Amino acid sequence: MSRAIIGIDPGGSGGIAVFVKGRATAVKMPPSVFELNEYLRFLIETYETPLVFIEKVQAFVDDDKFPGMKFAINKMLDNQSQIHTILKLSGIPYVEVYPNSWQNHPYIKCPNKDAEKPERKKHYAAIAQTNFPEVKVTLATGDALCLIIFGTYKLHNDINWVIDKVQNGKSVDLRLFV
Description:
The chain has six helices and six strands; from the N terminus they run βββαβαβααααβ. The protein is of the alpha/beta class. It has a six-stranded mixed β-sheet with strand order 3-2-1-4-5-6. A hairpin with a 2-residue loop joins β2 (about 15-20) and β3 (about 25-30). α1 (about 35-45) packs parallel to α2 (about 70-90), α4 (about 115-130) crosses α5 and α5 (about 140-155) packs across α6 (about 160-165). It starts with a strand and ends in an 11-residue tail after the last strand.
């Protein structure tokens, strides 16, 4: 078995990306909790002690001001909760990453600081495509692949950051991912 780094964008229009042995794959977020559980269990059985980097979703008071925003945030929070439950029950270590952290990473950051969400999503997908030419990157999978870029960078250059933030796996030797 091989060790894998997994990036998860928990949004309903998000995705799951897997990086192992220098190659990546990515899929759109499974539409149901049953399919999500099945896919994560497949990854857990396929890869020896994978490490997950998952975007941390938060609700804000102003989310009510935009039509559909509250629904989308609630869907992401629901997906995130389901993913956390599956990871915890499976004993898989994971690191929650605030969007601001990975989106401001020097290798990922959008050059237009005032860009609207669609422009930023296209930028992240383009960054992911450049880094993972073997993957047909979509707007759904771009963020998950960028989480892998961010996570891999942190493992190689700031492992203490990862050690401080890892949940569900303090006993895992993270140096094995480097």
